[in-house]
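Task: complex structure prediction.
Instruction: return structure tokens for all chains below.
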Amino acid sequence: MIELSTPTAFNFEQILRFLSRNEKECLHTIKNKEIFKVISFEYSLILFSISYDSHLQISIHSENQDQKIIEIVKNYVSDWFDLKANLHLFYETAQNDKVLALLCQKFYGLRMIGMPDLFESLVWSIIGQQINLNFAYSLKEKLVQNFGQKHFNNNEAFYALPTPERLASLNLEDFQHLQFSKSKAQYILNVSREFAEGNLSQETLKKLTFEEVKEKLVKIKGVGNWTANYSMMKSLKNYDAFPVEDVGLHNAVKTQYGLIAKPTISELNQMSEKWKGWRGYATFYLWHSLLG
DNA sequence: TACCAGGATGTTG
DNA sequence: CAACATCATGGT
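Output:
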């Protein structure tokens, strides 16, 4: 058992709530408040689980439990649950906005549940373009079950996302059989090739500025402003990345602020000035409010 | 039945 | 440069 200490503002129940938001989620499993997840590392798969009892408690269920593997898993969890962010700075900013301040009070300790893997956030956000979330989850499930990496533990299957190389080896028809639209399939192929051919990696993006990263992402056909910002907030810890076109955000703002109609893009850009520096976090809290 | 879903792109006016 | 059509399918 590995222990990982948590920062002051930390709420595991909210993490569970967020991670349980859809039953079709196939890239992690939750049993008895314990979260199971498979990640791939150097061509092998690592299955681990996380529970909480005054500390985060991590168990690795794969055979290899080298110190190196332990570090990989600890870093993954730290990234996934955003343990390093100073939430108090966000809460301070939120005081400029009564509605957001109330959400911060309600969800105190909720950290942005990220996607440590940039490829995953890009694929997932492309899947989610223009379709309802339920359908998006079932598309992801088909993609993962057909082409993903499977890890068995006590006769139970756990899945990891298909590798960029695997997806890049497919053709349009493979996706269309799974009910992907032709354009969605092409977009995912484009991203997969970028990664498989080494033109794009999390490492290289680290050295670039916010605008340079966005520019590089948007250059990929199929990645627009929404997708780029989504990935930047979920995978690259750009807490100010703002997916202003997001329909879920529009709905949340309409409800939370008691508007008659959904806000326009320019209205949202205007009101988000109050969240400056933390617009991604504000978006995440507003999304969380949709869970009811 | 028409319209909307955690958009992006290409074309038109 | 803004407005529109298109994509594919599921839900309401």
